[in-house]
Design brief:
By secondary structure, the protein is mostly helical. The chain is built from five helices and two strands, in the order αααββαα. Bound molecules: protoporphyrin IX containing FE (2 copies).
């Protein structure tokens, strides 16, 4: 399919839905009680895992949409700018996948059984494996912080385009362009 010059309504809805879900997810992640050895997941952790797997499903759908509905970088971006912007976007997708999958591995290695929002049992990725608990915890934290750093850079660039370059990049992700 030839690349479009603008994001469509679906791409914009996916973008802002992920922003909303990630905002809530980081808040739950930081506010939920710290884990101790052999602890069973309580309500906040069930919420974090359920929302996290929702994010995984939404980002997978969004990626399929992105691949089947390509959008060309803005024509005002040239050379390295174009490359950096594209690289940043793919890195955002990648890091959302890595963060959700390391979280899921964490829950799996602990041998937890968790129901999706307390309703349907969730499949785990592997049998319990306490030997890897510490390592996978480190991976989930590294992933969530890397994602946050790239998000901060991404939002900063959007604001630089809006208020310093005063071009139309920000408008590309907003309604009615
Ligand atoms: C993009 C989605 C996700 C984000 C942004 C995220 C973010 C976070 C944050 C901020 C923490 C607190 C860790 C800390 O103290 O630094 C955390 C902990 C945790 N997350 Fe996630 N998470 C996500 C997805 C998931 C998923 C899908 C699962 C499981 C299926 C999961 C399982 C866990 C577990 C088990 C902990 C506790 C680990 C600990 O206390 O060190 N997360 N997450
Ligand atoms: C308030 C926060 C945010 C603002 C203001 C913002 C703004 C924008 C803008 C203006 C674009 C269009 C850039 C262009 O195509 O030239 C864009 C694209 C994009 N944004 Fe954000 N963004 C925000 C948060 C996020 C977050 C949290 C993610 C995390 C996944 C994200 C992922 C992406 C991706 C992947 C694209 C490329 C479009 C696509 O391939 O689907 N954004 N964003």
């Amino acid at each position: 399919m030839p690349a479009q010059s603008q994001y469509g309504t679906t791409a914009k809805l996916f973008h802002w839905l992920i922003v909303a879900l990630l905002t809530v997810q980081y808040a739950i992640g930081w506010l939920m009680p710290d884990l101790h050895r052999d602890m069973k997941p309580g309500a906040p952790m069930t919420l974090h895992v359920s929302l996290g797997l929702t994010i995984l499903a939404v980002i997978a759908l969004r990626l399929v949409w992105r691949l089947t509905h390509p959008v060309a970088p803005d024509s005002s971006l040239v050379g390295l700018q174009r490359l950096a912007s594209e690289a940043m976007h793919w890195l955002l997708y990648l890091l959302v996948f890595v963060t959700t999958l390391t979280g899921w591995m964490f829950a799996s290695f602990r041998g937890w059984s968790i129901s999706y929002f307390g309703m349907w049992p969730l499949p785990m990725l592997s049998p319990a494996n306490p030997a890897y608990n510490k390592a996978i915890d480190g991976w989930h934290q590294a992933a969530e912080w890397s994602l946050l750093i790239i998000i901060v850079l991404h939002v900063s660039m959007a604001l630089v385009h809006r208020f310093i370059y005063r071009d139309g990049i920000m408008q590309r992700m907003l309604r009615g362009n």
